[in-house]
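[agent] plan:
  1. take the single chain provided in the ticket
  2. run structure prediction with default settings
  3. attach structure tokens to the ticket
  4. add a short note for the reviewer (M.T.)
[agent] executing step 1
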Amino acid sequence: MHDGLSIMCKYDSGIPQTFPDKPRVRDDYDPNIICASQLLDPSTNSWDNIRVRNNFVEKDANFILSLSVGGYRQDDRLVWHQERHGRYMKEINSALKGHEESQDFIQMVVFILWSLWKARNNLVFCHIHQQPQDIIASALNHQDMFKAANTLSLPPLRDSDVPSPYWESPRAGVLKVTCDAVSDKFWNMGALAVILRDHNSQVIDWLCVPVSHILDPLVLENMACIGAVSLARNRNINNLIVKGDCKVLFDGLCSGKVPL
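[agent] step 2 finished; step 3 output follows
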């Protein structure tokens, strides 16, 4: 902290709990003290120990008094002087504290590293900056969801509940072509993919085409279907099964009603 003029001492989140939190005030705190600069002794430019302890509970007062004050001219920012290894150190240490011996320690580390990697990619490729506490919160939230999903008690599946295989071979003499499409808003483009296989699941031919400036899923799925039919026609294939995952498109083709 430099001079504390821009830090709202009772409202800004700066106390290093599990995540940075607002300091807790005493019941008899002074409502006239708003900025952190009012907690300083002007004669020494350091914390006024009595004033800090008269306004905040003991634990939070100790945290505040451990903050360094002054130094080179710069904007106010809360930095704990014990930290020497990077901006994320406080949040990571707080998140891991108490879990060193638990069974989910490695799992927590993996989720934190995954969140850090995602944050790095968001910054490099999308120019999106995330606060350290938000990154750690996201990691812990994903870990909680993962643990909850693995503790669900599901009833045993009946034979009738078991889904059929994702890809079923056609009968001998018939070829099967599968088509699909994807879109990417960031790059403003889509892509089509087509694969042609026989009854032994052997790949006969395939097609993969990027499409610029088209993001509509239905349009892309339609183009993929056209690509599938064209691929078969170029090989003079007449006995053909076309499969795709766009129900709207295939319902329209089967009913004769164009969905576009």
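[agent] step 4 note for reviewer: The CA atoms of residues 122 and 128 lie 5 Å apart.
[agent] ticket updated
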